[in-house]
Specification:
The protein is of the alpha/beta class. It folds into two domains: 134 residues, Four Helix Bundle (Hemerythrin (Met), subunit A) (Up-down Bundle), CATH 1.20.120.420; 193 residues, 3-Layer(aba) Sandwich (Rossmann fold), CATH 3.40.50.10470. Helices cover 37% and strands 16% of the residues. The strands form four sheets. A seven-stranded mixed beta sheet has the order 6-5-4-7-10-15-16, with helices on both faces. It has a four-stranded mixed beta sheet with strand order 11-8-9-14, with helices on one face. Strand 15 and strand 16 form a beta hairpin. It is globular. The mean pLDDT is 96.
Amino acid sequence: MHPVVPVQWSNDGRAVRIIDQRELPERLVQRDITTLDEFCAAIRTLAVRGAPAIGVFAAMALACVMQRRVELARDAFDRELALAAERLRTTRPTAVNLAWAIDCMLECAHSTQGEALGVAAALRRTADALHADDVAMCRRIGEHALPLLTDGARVLTHCNAGALATTGIGTALAPIYLAHEAGRSVHVIASETRPLLQGSRLTAWELERAGIPVTVATDGAIASLMRTGMIDLAIVGADRIAANGDVANKIGTYALAVLARHHGLPFYVAAPTSTIDPDMASGADIPIEARDPHEVRAFRGAPAAPLGVAALNPAFDVTPAELLTAIVTDRATYYPPYDFRGVSG
C-alpha cells in the first residue's frame, strides 16, 4: 500500500515539497516551498489542507525558514521564530493541530540552549519527529476503527480525511486503507463536499488511485441514499474536538450526522488526539473560519451563481456530541458521554 504523500522534504532537504491540492484531480503537481510567504499562502489557499497535514507542514515550514537564519544572534533568532510562528498560526483558525504543532516547535526552541545553529537543528529534528508521529498516528487510528467495518460495508465519508489530509494513510480513511490491505471488501460513498469539492476532487482521486471502490454522490443525494439502504455507516474526520465531544469538521458534516441519526445509521469521527482541545468547553466556543464568498459564487473561474449575489461560506460546522456514535483516536475509541478535559495531544 503506497498512499500519496502530500508533505515531505525536497530531495536536497532545503525545501518542503507539497502536492498542490488545488490542481487535483486534473493534474498531479508538486511544488517546492522555501519562504514564509509561500508557506502561509499554501495553507490559506488550501494548496495544503487537512488538520494533521497543516500541523506537520507548519512545523516543517518553521524548520525550513529558520535554517536560513542561523547567522543571527540567539535573541534575534528567537524573535524571528516567534514572528514566523504567529504568521503561520493565523492562516486558518479552526483546526487546532496547526497551533498545537507550532507550540511544539516553540517549546523545542525554548528548551534548547546555545546558539541559533543548534536551535535550528533541534527544530528540524522536532519537525521530522512530528512527521513520523503523524504517519504512526494514522495507522493506529485505522487499527482502532477497523473493527467498525464489516466485509462488504458501504461507508459514507465527507470532505477528505485521507492520505492527502495527513502524512500517513489518513484518519477517517485509515480503516478503509487497512480493510483493503487485509482483502476486505469495502465500498466508499464520497459526498462531493461543496463548495470546493474536496470529496469528489480529492477523496475519490486518492481512493481510485489506491484501487479502492469509490462512488461520488452529490451532497443533496445523501438523504435518499440512506433511506434506500445504500449506506451502512459514516466515518468523517475532525478539525477540532471540544472537551464535551462536540466536533468541528467540514461544512455539511452536521447535516450528515442529523441524517444518520434519523435513519438509524452509525456516525463515527476519526481524529488524532492532537485534534482534541480540552480548553474548548463545547463546540459553541470553536472559531469557525469564514472563507471568501467568491468560492461559492464561482468554481475555477466558472460562474456558479450571479457574481454580485451575496453568499455565505463558512468552512466548517459543529456537530453536537450527542449525534456521534463514537470518536476514534490514535489512543482509543471513546463512546458517549464524552469528557476530554485534561486530555492532551
